[in-house]
Every structure is written in C-alpha cells, then in structure tokens.
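Objective 1b. Sequence-to-structure analysis of Putative HNH nuclease YajD.
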Amino acid sequence: MKKKCLNCDKEITVKPSQYERKKYCSRACKTDYQKKNPPAFWDEMSKKVAVRCSYCLREILRKPSIIRQNNFCNHECKRLYQIKNGHLINQHLRKDVTKSCEICGKQFIVPENRRETAKYCSKSCLGRANGRRGKTQYSKKVKLPCSNCGREIEKKPSIIKTLNFCSIQCMGTFYSKSAMFAGENSGTWAGGDISYYGPNWLSQRRKARARDNYTCQDCGITEHEYGSELSVHHLIPFRKFEGDWKKANELSNLISLCEYPCHRNRHSKKMVDDIV
C-alpha cells in the first residue's frame, strides 16, 4: 500500500498491517517532524529538577518522581559510591563470624550465612587445597591395559568398564574389528540389504526418474548437476510388502532422490523412527 511521509510528503510503500502505524520514510524525518511538533510527553522534560550526583557531585536532571536519597549520573558512579561507603550500607543487618583457614590457619571474617561453606581465606589457599585434593584423587587411579592396543592407561575406579581404551581411535578400531555393533548386533538392524527388487524394478526405476523430471524431490538438484543417476527410494520399505514386488514397485511408492545427502537422510530418519 502507498502513503505519504508525514514530514516530507515522500511516497512510501507500507504493509497493510502497518498502514496506521508507519508515518515517516526514515528516522531523520521522524526526528525532524517531532522537533517541529513536540509530542505531549516532551512537556515532562521541563519539569525535571537539577540534583547532584552523590559520588562525583556533577549536576544531573531528574524527574521529581525518581529523585531518591542518593542519585547517580551513571552505573559506574553508583558502583564506586557503594565501594566507598559499603561500611555504611545495611551494616546493622550483617552478622559476621570468624573462621580459621584450613590451609594457612589465618583468621578471617565472613557473613553468618557462610559459616559452614567458607574454608579458605583467599583464592591462593583455595588453589593449594585443590592441588592437594587432585593429588589425592590421582593416587587412587588404577593402572590397566587398553583393550585394543594393550597400552597401559590410568583410570579412576568409578569409570573403569569392561572395555577400556586409551583413545577414541583405539575404541573405533576395536569395534570395527570385532563387529560388536555391526549387523545383527546393531540397534538399528532391520534385516540386512535386499539386493533383488523384482523383475520390473529397472523399468519402474526409469519411469520414476522420468516422472520426477530427473530431479531430486528433496533438494531439487538435477542429474546433470549431480553428475550421476539419481537413486530411487521406496516410500514404504520393500521388505514390508513381504515379497509382493508388484505393489512395492508401484510408481506411487517410488521417489527420486540424490544418494547423498537426501537418500541417506531418508534412511537415517526411518531407522530413528523405528527405534523410537
């Protein structure tokens, strides 16, 4: 929709939903118009009162409704004021206790609510305590061989398992050699690949690719762009037809997809759905 800028009369295009709200062609026009025709809320500016910043004593303007006992020109002044006058702020509410540092024995003061948790007088003592604790925990580690390469490794008793590896590479090599999670041992096993889809499969495959204009139906890439023939995917898996290849290979059950990533993504999603 078209309308004119309220300030310069320039024609602007606006969405129907913003027709009543949008009035200017730019921020500059809005500022210029409001300077010539001050909004009603600008009258409040004239009611501001001059007060002093409680920290730097610089003069600032505040509306009467927000003037407090202490006023600050910015957050930095407020922070510095609280640091300087911290001993005067709510000190009548604070209850302190004296504790002895578990590392150096030095006495230090903490609020009552930290009586049980405060143990060290400084970050330095905390660091020394963590170092001692780490050495104690390290001394409890157990030496054992890597299940793949036999290399000696150290582990805490709580994380020792039936199989233990010195690296991710060793773990991958071991699982690959042992086929522990492959084939029927895999949680996504669906009965193995089917190599024969019936006597009409090749002709139905050609028809499906031609029907889909030799274009991947998920990402839109063509065979020419992809550099090879597209794969043809069964929307309902072939194995669910229990050998009825005529129904399984109907064109309504076939779709053309690029092998990577679209065809693989379809199979990955199917495996996840079956598990769930």
